[in-house]
Design goal:
This protein is α+β, with helices and mostly antiparallel strands. Helices cover 29% and strands 25% of the residues. The chain has one domain. Strands 1-2-3-4-5-6 form a six-stranded mixed β-sheet. α2 packs antiparallel against α3. The C terminus is likely disordered.
Length: 208
Amino acid sequence: MKRTLFPSPAEALSDLEGFRTPLYDAFEGAASIGRELFGTPGYDFDMHHYCSTMRFHVKRLLRGQGVDMEDLDNTGLCTRYGRYRLKMFKTYRGYVPIPGTSKTRQSFYCQVPLPLPGLLQMLTDMQGGLVNLLVVWEPKRNYDLERLSLALPRFGGTSSAAMHWEVAIPHPALSMAPDEVIVTAGDDLDIQRPDEEATGTEDEEPDV
């Protein structure tokens, strides 16, 4: 398969085939723990506590499967798999979260195609050939895992972001070809911040 700096959804899913099982095992295991804790009748639910608990157990379970997880503030989730650097975030109102004021996340999202082949090669060399991808998770109302998706960020700022594409990550138990599970794919998937402020502060990984 021909390699490009920015892979297609099918290419990225194929490259990450060996990561799907540990990824789903970790998120489904963390969701089970969250459901048991936060689904208790009368429990005073707090979204920040829930997200922090999920991140903690996802990281713990991935490390238990031999995945090398980076140490980030606020139990942020980040790892490297092959030529990809993967950061994992909860959806914000069903969409990929925007970076907000976090300079670290803005930099991670910035992957704009360059017009000249020479500049593109320079960017490839600067990144060590690495491509940044987002693993986006969404819980159900009963705290089960609703979905996992993979997104290739294009850029992100304080109030908006854009993806090159976003694709559902097929469950390992399903025999589903990558080209059958594409949710959205396009040159510029725009995401705008809702009126309410998202969580997160300058230069730190946001709470969700």
